[in-house]
Design brief:
Elements: E1 2-7, E2 11-18, E3 21-29, H1 38-49, E4 60-65, H2 73-83, E5 88-93, H3 94-103, E6 108-113, E7 117-123, E8 126-129, H4 135-138, H5 144-156, H6 162-172, H7 179-185, H8 189-194, H9 197-202, H10 207-223, E9 235-239, H11 241-245, H12 247-256, E10 260-265, H13 269-276
Helix pairs in contact: 1-2, 3-13, 5-10, 10-12
Length: 285
């Protein structure tokens, strides 16, 4: 069996192949090594796959995940070696996964806009330039965490209209005075903040809400994308739930910064599966 994993901070999608045939698709929690330990990953994977799963029958694992870069990828490699003892494992960043799904071994700018944000410039399948996204606390402009954090800040400071504020309180049972404690008490603050993008989407008709999303994307282009050398010569290809759901606003922000958008995918999994198995065709394709 060969396994392909697309891991975000919130969830990990898995495709299991037997030969060239897709045998199973399912999801587990996210395994960003900046936020979870090797022990947690081992326990979670073992539990999620279940006692009946043939762990020793896995020959290869291709894991593309958030936070799997620099000196952090060893956490995933070590965990995978324990859970799948007979498998050779490759661990790459979620950005490389997005690039393989979006442009394959070609060229172009790629971005992840989901719970977090990452970007890079690919040339012939090789990452040639990358501007650090800086993570949730210092950057992640345009991401779900970034947009949710902006919404929480406005709500906590009672800076939203009375109508929207009341709808927020009704939806989440959360008072402005409780935001600070709830936010900092949460073990995964990036996921907590990103969870409020649902409220943003449901209330885009409101000018204040729409402006939060617009401002978040404008920050993304101003602080990140336009900092790439010759950025206006390449299409920007995006993957992630935030890019997909808010793509009309994303397109407007791109146009105002003289950036051309290419592909926008909700998930990279079908593209990754096609990259590793060229004869793979997703259902409905």
């Amino acid at each position: 069996m060969i396994m392909i994993a697309d891991g975000g901070s919130t969830k990990t999608s898995w495709n299991i192949f037997n030969g060239q045939i897709l045998q199973k698709s399912f999801e587990t929690e996210g395994y960003n090594p900046f936020y979870v330990t090797e022990e947690h990953i081992i326990k979670s994977l073992t539990s999620s796959f279940g006692a009946d799963f043939n762990f020793k029958g896995v020959s290869s694992v291709f894991f593309y995940g958030a936070g799997c870069e620099g000196d952090k990828d060893y956490i995933l490699k070590s965990a995978l070696a324990v859970v799948f003892p007979n498998a050779t494992s490759e661990v790459h960043s979620d950005l490389i996964g997005a690039a393989k799904a979006l442009v394959g071994d070609g060229s172009g700018m790629v971005s992840i806009l989901g719970t977090g944000m990452n970007t890079g410039l690919m040339k012939n399948g090789i990452l040639s330039q990358q501007i650090d996204g800086l993570g949730f606390y210092l950057g992640d402009e345009g991401s779900g965490g970034y947009l949710g954090r902006k919404l929480l800040k406005k709500y906590a400071r009672t800076d939203l209209s009375k109508d929207i504020s009341e709808k927020f309180q009704t939806t989440y049972g959360l008072l402005p005075s409780q935001v600070l404690k709830n936010f900092y008490d949460h073990p995964l603050q990036n996921k907590y903040a990103a969870s409020f993008t649902t409220f943003l989407y449901d209330h885009l008709y409101d000018e204040q809400i729409a402006r939060i999303v617009e401002d978040g994307f404008n920050d993304f282009f101003k602080n990140v994308i336009t900092q790439y050398k010759n950025y206006d010569r390449y299409d920007l290809n995006c993957v992630g739930s935030v890019a997909f759901v808010f793509q009309n606003i994303l397109k407007n922000a791109a146009q105002s910064h003289h950036v051309s958008l290419g592909k926008i995918l909700k998930s990279p999994m079908d593209g990754l599966s096609s990259y590793h198995f060229p004869d793979y065709f997703p259902s409905g394709a």
